[in-house]
Amino acid sequence: MKIFLNIIIIIALVAVTFFGLGPVLLADGSKTERLLTLLVVLALYFLLVLALKWVKKRYR
């Protein structure tokens, strides 16, 4: 179960990186739009890292 949850979280991190940082770095929108996207991406990273820590703590 622990390995399955780790794989799910790692896949989510890769997806957030691919679909989140791409628009932040390469989009032609306004600076405000890119900054808002960056904040959302950082919040998702934070939540996923917390989930990863929780899984590692819970399933020792």
TrEMBL record:
Keywords: Membrane, Transmembrane, Transmembrane helix. The chain crosses the membrane at residues 7-29, 35-55. It comes from the Bacteria. This is Uncharacterized protein. It comes from Defluviitalea raffinosedens. The lineage of its organism: Bacteria, Bacillati, Bacillota, Clostridia, Lachnospirales.
